[in-house]
């Protein structure tokens, strides 16, 4: 499994060439690129626990463990990093608001188990049934409504400190359009840094926390450099847990789309179609990693487009760099001071960056439509997208026998029912059915433009 072949002289990648998954550069270069992958994933991975109240070090720990587990399950031939999935933000936020932290972890565990089961089915039966269930118009609608459903949360944080939020948002946009390649892809991370520095300069760090009475600066100073992450157990016993699990089910569909799309993206970039044969293993690995994270107090994971962007920029697809990245993330998890720094990010800064971030999640869904040329002249596609998005953005809710279903659940159900039932009718009446295509390769947003 670990028999990487040295690529060329171990230092350079020739024009037009790529470092294949079974190859590696010299170890100094491999370690450097591995650390670069940590930087690339860090901006997104720390935001999920920061926004949901999950412990940052714990999430980092299970991110690193999940990445190593992913490499083992896929036979060390599928380069990918498992970071925190944005798709969990909305259901976790809703679960913690109406239930408890343990209920949210139970939802993460449930998603992981279901995703692993889907992976086993894909490994045995292939991907055709997934393509049929979630054609591009449906996959795009589900991803988009999850992002847009979070808009009120971003606005709530934005209002706490509009100036800090505006500075953060402006910096994020500026970095995205100013820089090419790697720096362009971590514009959100850079925007948070600018907002953080602004908060320090304007005295936000001298204001005591309303609950603890401790200022952010004091909290960082008191945190130890080395220590164990916090661990929490999921709660399946509380009555409120089972009413919140339904909110997590649509996340499974998003993770399937992300994993399948990323595997196809890597297969395309490496010009190795055999990588697609590991799709089932990828889903199993992500499912097990998500289950493990939820069982210990971390957020659910997914394959990261940010790191695929780094591979595209460096042309290094070696799995060796991901072993380095996984171990570096684990090491960072054992520093409570790192967690204290991220927990000290002011709400206004989070409001600015999430205004962009949640919108970008929605744009990824729209990008799926654009990349696959979804035909919106067909009524079945029009209503699949239109109805599901309005339900998700408005935050529709429905009570059924004590269970409350939110906008994400109802929007997802609407997209699936309208598309498939509408297609049956449209095909029978010949009024313009949509022929389902495969899930697309989901790439990163930002970075170098394709001129």
UniProtKB/TrEMBL annotation:
State the membrane topology: Multi-pass membrane protein
Annotated keywords: Membrane, Transmembrane, Transmembrane helix
Q: Where are the transmembrane segments?
A: 54-73, 80-98, 104-125, 132-151, 163-179, 186-205, 240-257, 320-342, 348-370, 382-399, 405-422
Q: Which GO terms describe its cellular component?
A: membrane
Give the matching InterPro entries.
Answer: NCS2
Q: Does the UniProt entry include the keyword Oxidoreductase?
A: no
Name of this protein: Nitrate reductase
Give the originating organism.
Microbacterium faecale
Upper classification of the source organism reads: Bacteria, Bacillati, Actinomycetota, Actinomycetes, Micrococcales
